[in-house]
Specification:
4-stranded mixed β-sheet; alpha+beta; single chain; 41% strand
Length: 129
């Protein structure tokens, strides 16, 4: 009986640890910038110097756009994902070395159901040079 209770507590603890640190994936879709609504594309193309996270609301969807602080010809890849962590929705951008020419990217956009920007947190993970 004691072993079972201890194992149960350990599994619950591991589950809470996973939820607090790694999080649970949110339902979203990665889309190319060309598939974003015209209004959003126009806003991004008008201010090409802005880097980091940008949030757009259009209809029933929220669009999260991330552009890395790249310099010309950086051999990097940019990945963006959404997760529930510790009760908050977190947009996580990871910029790392690209391993092939086909993986080079400086920005990424995701589309998900309508979510308030106030309910989101943002994390950047930039590679070491």
């Amino acid at each position: 009986m004691k072993k079972g209770a201890i194992l149960l507590i350990c599994f619950i603890g591991l589950g809470v640890f996973y939820y607090m640190t790694i999080g649970i994936k949110v339902d979203y879709e990665k889309i190319p910038l060309q598939q974003a609504p015209d209004k959003i594309r126009k806003a991004i193309y008008e201010e090409t110097d802005l880097t980091g996270f940008r949030i757009f609301q259009e209809g029933r969807h929220t669009y999260v756009y991330y552009k890395s602080k790249d310099t010309t010809n950086d051999y990097i890849t940019t990945n963006l994902e959404m997760r529930w962590k510790a009760g908050s929705m977190v947009a996580m951008a990871r910029v790392d070395h690209a391993v092939s020419d086909g993986l080079i990217s400086y920005d990424q956009m995701i589309r998900m159901k309508h979510t308030s920007e106030e309910d989101m947190m943002f994390e950047e993970q930039i590679m070491s040079k």
